[in-house]
Specification:
Blueprint: H1 4-11, E1 12-17, E2 20-25, H2 33-45, E3 51-55, H3 63-68, E4 75-78, H4 90-96, E5 103-105, H5 109-115, E6 123-127, H6 130-138
Parallel strand pairs: 3-4, 3-6, 4-5
Antiparallel strand pairs: 1-2
Amino acid sequence: MTTIESINKDMYQAITDDSNITVIEKQFGRTTLQDISKALNEYLQSLDCNKHIIISMMANKDHEEYISYFKNISSLTTIDIPNQPNSIKGETLRKKLKKFPNIQFKKSITEAISSCPISENDIILITGSLYLAGEVLNLN
C-alpha cells in the first residue's frame, strides 16, 4: 500500500516553506494515479482544515476514479492545462465530475486560486498532472 511517506520518498519532490508545502507529483514504477490519490487523501484527512482542490488532467486518465478517492473536499475547481493539447478541457472535466458539490470551472490557475474561499490554515491542493504542476511553478 502506498503511504504519504512513500509518496514523498519515491514519487514526489516536496518543497517546504514554513507551514506551506508544495508537492510535485511524478509517477514511478507500478504506482498508479489511484495509489497517489488514495495516499494524498489519507494525508489530507489527517489535517484539521478545509481542503480545496484545483485539478486538471490528461484526457486519457480515469478522471472520475482519481477524484473519487478524495473525501470532505470544501471546493473543487477544474482548469485547462495551458499549451497541452492532450489534456481534458477544464469545462469538460467539470461536467464529468458534476456529482461533486461545490465544483466550478475557472479559466486560469490564478483565477482558480483566487476563487477558493480560503480561511486560516486551509489547504489548496493542485493536482492531476505533472504538466499542471509545471505551469504552477512557472507562476513563481
